[in-house]
Amino acid sequence: MAGYSLGDSTAMISLNQLVLGYQGRAVTPPLTGHIVKGSMTAIIGANGTGKSTLLKTILKLQSPVSGQLSFNEGRPRIAWLPQLAEMERQFPTTVYDVVCMGAWPARGLFSSLNRQIRLRVADAIERVGLTTLSKQPIETLSGGQFQRMLFARLLVQNAPLVLLDEPFTGVDSQTSDFLMTLICQMHQAGQTVMAVLHDNELVSSHFPHVLLLTQDHFHWGDTAEVLPHYCKSSINLALSA
To answer: What are the protein's GO molecular function terms (predicted)?
Structure first.
C-alpha cells in the first residue's frame, strides 16, 4: 500500500520498496511512500515491527535490507531524540553543556559559542523549565527533567527534520503534555516531525498522519483512516496469543 503523508506537497523523504531489518533479516514488508516537508507523522505498531529501525535508517545508523531511501532536496539537518534507555546518564557534564551540543551540527564541534548561540541556549533551557538546574550534573536529573533537557537541545538545533523515538517513555503525564506542546510548536514552525509512539489517544489527538507497521503489511495516511487498522491488528494479536 503506497502511503503519502500529506502536507505542502513537497516530498522531503521518499521510500521505494524499502525493507528494514537487522543483519540482512527483514522485519518489515517493502515500504513505498513519502514523508512530506512540514508534515507530522506518528509511527506505530507492535514491538519488533521496525519503528525505531526506520528512524535509524533515515539517520544512516543502520542500512536497509533492500530498496531505497532518498532525500528529494538533499539531506537536511536532522535533530534526533533516541530512546531514553539508550542515553548515557552518568556522563560527567551539565544540563547547560548538553543543551549547547544542539549547536554543534550547524556550527561544528570545535566552534566557540557566540553571544547569539548562548542566548538561544538560555532561551531553550528556560522554555523547558530548567533554568535553575542549568549547572546541575545530568546524573542528578529525574527522568522527566532529563527528557526536558534533551528537548531543549532539539530547540537549539532547530533542524528541518525532527526524529523522536518514544519521547514520552519514562516521564509523568504532566511532562508528557508539556513535551507534546513543544512538538506541536515545532510542527507549527514548519519542522517535519516523525515520532515513534505507543499511545493511541495521543496519536489520535495530535498527529495528523500515521505510519502503521506490522510484520506483513503497512498502512500510511490520515490518522482517522489508519488508526482503526492498528486497533484491529492489536485485537487479532491478543486473540492469537
So the answer is: ATP binding; ATP hydrolysis activity
Which pLDDT value is given to residue 234? 54
Q: Are 208 and 193 in contact (CB under 8 A)?
A: no
The closest alpha carbon to 32, from 1, 9, 60, belongs to 1
Residues 241, 237: Cα–Cα separation, whole Å: 6
Instruction: Take residue 95 and report the three cell numbers written for it.
Output: 544540563
DSSP secondary structure code for residue 129 in this structure: T
Q: 116 to each of 76, 120, 123, 125, how far by Cα in Å?
A: 22, 6, 11, 14
CATH number of the structural domain spanning residue 2:
3.40.50.300
Sign, CA dihedral 130-203-221-241, equals positive
pTM for this entry: 0.89
The two counts, helices (H) then strands (E), for the chain are 8, 12
In the listed set 159, 184, 214, which residue is the last one of a domain according to the structure?
Answer: 159
Residue with cell 515545532: 186
